[in-house]
Each structure stands twice: as structure tokens, then as C-alpha cells.
Amino acid sequence: DPYGPWLEPVFGGYGIPVTSSLSQPAVANPETRAWLDLVRALGRDLERGALLGFLDAVLPREQARLAEQLAREAAVVRGEHDWLAALDAARPEPGLDALRSAIECAIDARRAFAASRSFAETASIALALGAGLSDDDGRAALEGAAGLDAIERAAGAAHPFTPETAAAALESLLLELATPWRARDDGGVRILD
């Protein structure tokens, strides 16, 4: 229901509590969104927006801003070459070494991701790179990706495994996560889906 989230401020303005069984995409939560950005960065050759979104979640604010500035000034689009060229062209600044280390870790993870041969392996690479993320829902979704290998085997998959397929599957797992919009029941108006 697209009107659910609007009802709380309307009724709340009159002091009437709102309770709902509706849910919203978990990627609306910045921590879960960071997992999605991480998977997209690995699956899409370190695409600028996805990598910046992930770095914003794991780096201190000053370093995340430096990454955004660096990408903008060097016109980074995607790929190891663009990111390394941007780092090499950057003026020495506080935090640049730490940023270089974070981007080099992402580059190494991207190489491993591209060479992976199973859903479990791709998920493991993403989980290792995202070890600093706090969101348990995103982590659990990726941990469950190992089951996709068993499904592929049981179904007798006719197509060979590719990292692109894995990236799409991991993105799908994260996009399907949902969280309750308003779970606590305070009486008042109850919205049921």
C-alpha cells in the first residue's frame, strides 16, 4: 500500500497512534543499503556510485567525502584502472592513504569475485569485504546464498555459473528483504495489508 507511510504523520498530528502490518524494503535502511552497494560494486566492476555508497558506510565521514571528491575530480566511471588513476592523480591529503587501502581492498575483492565459481564463494567474498557493516539482515541474506548452489545442482542448471549471475542473485536476495513499517501496536488506527 503506497499510502501506509503517509498515514502515520497525518494521524500522529492529531495524537492518534498508527500500527501496521505493512512492510518496507529493507534497503531503505542505510546499513542494508550498504550491503546492496557492496554487491553492486563487486558485480558491476566497481561502479562509481555503488562503491561510493559502500565506502560511505564503512569509512569515516572525512574519508568518504574524500572518495567522492576524488571520483568526481578524476571522472571515475568504474573499474580498477579509473580508481587507481584517480588515486595516483590525487593531491596528498589527510586520509588519502587509508582511502587508498580501502579502494585497493575493493579491487582485490572484485578480482576474486570475477574469478569465483559458486554462489557461496561470491557471497563469502562480499561478506569478507563488508565485515565492518553492522546490518544483520543483509549479512544473513548473503550467508543464505550458499543454498543457491544446492538449488542449481538439484535443478541441473543448464547454463554455466558466471559472476554476473551471482551478482544478480545476491542483489535479488537483498532487494527482497523487507522490514515492518510500524510493528509496535499502540492502539489507535491499525493498517493491515
Q: What do you see in this structure?
A:
The chain has 193 residues and is mainly α. 63% of the residues lie in helices and 6% in strands. The chain is built from ten helices and four strands. It has helices at 4-12, 30-43, 48-58, 61-73, 79-89, 96-115, 119-129, 136-143, 146-155, 163-176, and strands at 18-20, 23-25, 178-180, 189-191. The strands form two sheets. The protein has a two-stranded parallel ribbon. 32% of the residues are buried. The mean pLDDT is 85.
How many helices does DSSP assign? 10
What gross morphology would you assign?
flat
Helical residue percent band: 55-70%
Mean pLDDT: 85
Euclidean distance between termini CA atoms:
7 Å
Note the beta-strand portion: 5-15%
- Largest beta-sheet characterization: 2 strands, parallel
Low-confidence stretches: none
CA radius of gyration: 20 Å
| Strand line-up of the largest beta sheet | 1-4
| N-to-C order of helices and strands | HEEHHHHHHHHHEE
The total beta strand count reads 4
What is this structure, in a nutshell?
The chain has ten helices and four strands; from the N terminus they run H-E-E-H-H-H-H-H-H-H-H-H-E-E. By secondary structure, it is mainly alpha-helical.
Question: Layout of helices and strands, plus pairs?
Answer:
Elements lengths: L3 H9 L5 E3 L2 E3 L4 H14 L4 H11 L2 H13 L5 H11 L6 H20 L3 H11 L6 H8 L2 H10 L7 H14 L1 E3 L8 E3 L2
Helix pairs in contact: 2-3, 2-8, 2-10, 3-4, 5-6, 6-7, 7-9
